[in-house]
Amino acid sequence: MEERVIQLENKIKEMIDELKGLCNTNGLSNQASEEVVITSTFLYKFLNDKFMANLNDFSVKTGMLIEDILKNEHKEMEVFYNSYPQDVAFMYEDTIECLINKSTDDKFYKLFDDALERISNYPQNEEFSIDTSDGGRKPLFTRITENVEASKRNNFAKNIFGIISQDKFSFEQAFKGNFDFYSAIFEYLIKDYNVASGVYAEYFTPQVISSTIAKILVNMSPVEDKIYEVYDPAAGSGSLVLHLANELGKGQFGDKAQVYTQDISNKSSRFLRTNMILNGLTNSLDNIIEGDTLLNPSHFNVPHDPDSGIKKFDYVTANPPFKTDFSSTRDKIERNWEDTDRFFAGIPKIPAKDKKKMAIYLCFIQHILYSLKDEGKAAIVVPTGFLTAQSSIEKSIRSKLIDNHWLKGVISMPSNIFANTGTNVSVLFIDKVNKEDKVILIDASNLGSKVKEGKNQKTVLSTYEVKKIEDTFINKEQVDDFSVLVTFDEVKEKNYSFSAGQYFKIKIEYVEMTQEEFGKKINMYKNELNKLFEENSILQKQIKENLEKIKYE
Fold first, then answer.
1. How many other β-carbons are positioned within 10 Å of the β-carbon of residue 66?
2. How far is CA 30 from CA 39, 42, 165, 198, 264, in A?
3. What is the dihedral of CA 382, 387, 388, 391, to 10 degrees?
4. How do strand 407-412 and strand 257-263 relate by DSSP bridges?
5. d(CA 460, CA 449)
6. Most buried one in 89, 172, 405, 426, CB count within 10 A?
C-alpha cells in the first residue's frame, strides 16, 4: 500500500513538472500567470478525477450504469450531487473524458475555457468561490488559455490535455489520502510561486513548524468532541490553520474544526482554497475572505453584520508579516478602531527613513488577542527581537500577556528556519485560561542543520529535534541550556523579557584540590604576573627612549 502511495505522489509531481515545462515553452516562466495556469490546471484535474471516481462509486451503489446516470433522466444527477455535497459538481460535457474527444477542434481552447467558466458558475459550486471584504466573489476558475498569445492558445490547450489525460488519480489513496500526503503535494505544487510579493507578502510556514505548533496548541488542554472555531487573520496558503484543523481531528459531528481565514493577497487566497479542497475541508470554504484584516476584519458574530461585533474564536494561529509599508491605511486603522480596545497598545508610527520597516506584526498580535474567546488559545510567530524589545508597543503587549497570566510559553527557533526570510523567529503560545503559575521558555536556536534550498540557506530540524521541542513544551520539562520554567513575577522582574537565555542559571565549576596544590597554583600565577610586569617595564622604557629620538625638522 505504501508503495502505491509513493507511486501516486511521483505521478502527481511528474504531472506538475510537465505543466511547468509547458508554461516555460509558451513564455510563461517566472510570470504571475504561470502560477494561475499550474494551480488551476492541477485543481481541475484533481476535481475532475474525483468527480469521475464519485460517479463510479455511485454507479456501484445504485446498480445504475454511468451512461444512464449521465443522461440525467428522473433527476439521477441531482440525487448524485446530493450524495457528494462536499465536492465540486461537474457536467459530463466539462470533464476531461468528454473534452479530450474534441481536441481536434480548431477552437478547442475556447471549449476548455468555457468549461472552466461553467464549472465556476454552477449553482452547486457557489461555495467554492472566495468572498472579498468588499462583498465581491472570486470564481473557482478563470479562462486559462488567455494567459498565452492568441496564436498559441489551441496548441496550449491541447498540450495541457495531453498531460492531464495520461493517468487518473483513481486509486483510493488519491481521494482518501491523509493530511501529510496532501501537505507534501501542496508544498510541491506551490514551491516555485510562494515568494514574498504584494502588499503584505505571502509568508509560508514550513510544514514541520506548522505541525509542531498544532500539536502543542491541541495539547494545551483536553480536546472535547465538539466543533471548534479556528482562525488565521494572515492565513497565507493555510499551512498553520490547516495543520491545526488536522490535529483537532474528527468527532461524531465530522471535522472538529470550522476554519475561518482572511488574507489581503489574492494569490494566497487561491492557494488556501486549493489546499482546503485537497484536504476535504470544503465546509469551511465560505469562511475564506480576501481582504485587509486590520482595516476591514470580515468575520462577525452574525455573518456579514459588522454591527454584531468581531467574531471570537477558540483557536487562532498566525504567521503574520513582520515589517512592511502600510502607511496608506495606518491612520484609517487607528481612526476606525480608536473607540475599542482592539489595538490597546497602539499602532506603530511611520518610520521617518524607511516605511517598509513599519512593524505591522504588532497590529496582528493585538487583533489576535482581541479575537480570542475568553477561554481561547493562540500561537503567533513573531520576530525574536519582540521578546526583549523595550519600545512602548512591544512592552505593552508583553505586559498584558504576563499581567493577565495569558502567556503559556515561548519557543525561540533556529535562524533561517524559514527559507524566504533570514529573520530569527519565535512562537508565542497564549492561553486565556492558563491555570499554571509558570511559563515555559525554550531556546531551540542551536538546533537543526543547514541545507541549501535554491539560493537560500535553510535550517532543517531532525525528527528527534522536533520531538524534543514538542515533548519539552507539552511536559513542561526543564533542560539545561534549553528550557526553563519561570513564574510570572520573575518575568516582571526581568522587565517582561520572554528570552529563555536570560533565565538560565550560570554554572560555576568547583574543583577539589589540596592545600599544596592550591599553593602551587598561586605561585604559578604569581610567576606569570611577574613576567608580564617585567615585559611591561621594558616596553615602557623602549617607548620613552623612542620618543626622545623624535626631532622637529
1. 14
2. 14, 18, 25, 15, 22
3. 50
4. unpaired
5. 5
6. 426
Alpha carbon distance 448, 248 (integer Å): 27
Number of CB atoms found within 10 A of residue 260's CB: 23
Residue 177 amino acid letter: G
How far is residue 35's CA from residue 41's CA, in Å, rounded to a whole number?
10
- 128 Cβ partners below 8 Å, 6+ apart? 88, 120, 140, 273, 277, 282, 285
Model pLDDT, residue 202: 47
Cβ burial 117-150 (10 Å sphere, 16+ → b, else e): eebbebebbeebbbbbbeeeebebbbebbebbee
CA distance 211 to 469: 12
Of 50, 44, 48, 70, the C-alpha closest to 59 is: 70
Give the Cα separation of 433 and 400 in Å (integer): 14
Predicted pLDDT of residue 194: 64
Sheet strands side by side (includes 313-318): 137-138, 130-132, 288-290, 257-263, 228-232, 313-318, 372-383, 425-431, 407-412, 438-443, 483-487
Query: Cα 552 vs. chain centroid, distance in angstroms?
Result: 72
pTM as predicted:
0.85
Amino acid identity of residue 175, one-letter, is: F
DSSP string, 380-449: EEEEGGGGT--SHHHHHHHHHHHHTT-EEEEEEPPTT-STT----EEEEEEETT---SEEEEEE-TT-SE
- The position carrying cell 503574520 is 320
Phi and psi dihedrals of 486, rounded to 5?
Answer: -130, 150
Distance (Å, whole) CA 504 – CA 277: 46
* Grid cell locating 365: 498580535
| pLDDT (tens digit per residue) in 6-51 | 788 888 899 999 999 999 999 988 788 898 999 999 999 988 988 8
* Alpha carbon 438 to chain centroid, angstroms: 28
Q: How far apart are alpha carbons 333 and 290 in whole angstroms?
A: 17
- DSSP tag of 282: G
In DSSP terms, which residues pair with 156 in a beta bridge? none
**CB of 169 closer than 8 Å to CB of 13:** no
227-277 pLDDT tens trace = 999 999 999 889 999 999 999 998 887 889 999 999 998 888 888 998 888
Q: With a cut of 70, which residues of the chain have pLDDT below it? A: 1, 72-74, 168-178, 194-204, 419-422, 453-456, 506-511, 551-553
Cα–Cα distance, 156 to 22 (Å, whole number)? 8
313 contacts 260 by C-beta, under 8 angstroms: yes
